[in-house]
Every structure is written in structure tokens, then in C-alpha cells.
């Protein structure tokens, strides 16, 4: 009796289909970061182009798309653009322009969100 049960269980286990892979929706965005405080040009450029600064803004870009959107990959970190501060001589504000990021979200209905489907 145990042999029949175990062999039937193993046969069912091997023949059962695996769950479908998760499907995603992708969206490419292009945006600019916000300028930081006024500083000497070299420091301002360094601060604007830091990986931490770009990653922080990229995360925010994807989150503004709505619930469930996350960063998939940063395609380009853009170019650094500086503008002089009006009231302080020799100091500038810098930001990244044309940052391109790919955001992704789980496609609705692919991971058990709708019972009886799939």
C-alpha cells in the first residue's frame, strides 16, 4: 500500500507542470535631477554626478509612476550641467540632465492576483 502511494505521489510530482514565470511591464523614462546647493564648480559637479545621488533620483523617478514600479536598470546617468549662483560669485549649482532609466512592474494577473486564471 505504501509503495503504491509513494510511487503515485512521485509520479504526480514529476508530471505536474511548474508555475509560470512572472511577467513584467517595462517603461523607459528620461528625467533631470534637481540641483544641489551652491558650491565651487569641481565640488558641485562631483556631488551631482555621484552614483548615490543618481540612484536616489532614479528610484524616485520610478516611484512617481505609481504603485509597484521599481528600478530595473539605469541606462545612462546623463550629463552634468552647471549654472552660476546669482548671489555668490564663483559658485555654481549642478545637476544631471537626461538621465535614462528603465522601470518595471509585475504584470497584473501573472502571479495569482486573479483567482482561477492562469
Helix-strand pattern: HEEHHEEEE
User: Structural class of the secondary elements?
Assistant: alpha+beta
**Fraction of residues in β-strands:** 25-35%
> Largest sheet, order of strands side by side?
1-6-3
- Helical fraction equals 25-40%
**What can be said about the biggest beta sheet?**
3 strands, antiparallel
Tally the helices: 3
SS elements, strand count: 6
Question: What kind of assembly state do the chains in view correspond to?
Answer: single chain
**What distance lies between the first and last C-alpha atoms, to the nearest angstrom?**
35 Å
Overall morphology: rod-shaped
Q: C-alpha Rg, in Å? A: 25 Å
Would you identify the regions where 5 or more consecutive residues have pLDDT less than 50?
Answer: none
Average the pLDDT over all residues and give the rounded result: 85
Summed up:
This protein has helices at 2-15, 41-49, 51-63, and strands at 24-31, 39-40, 70-76, 79-84, 91-97, 99-106. By secondary structure, it is an alpha+beta fold.
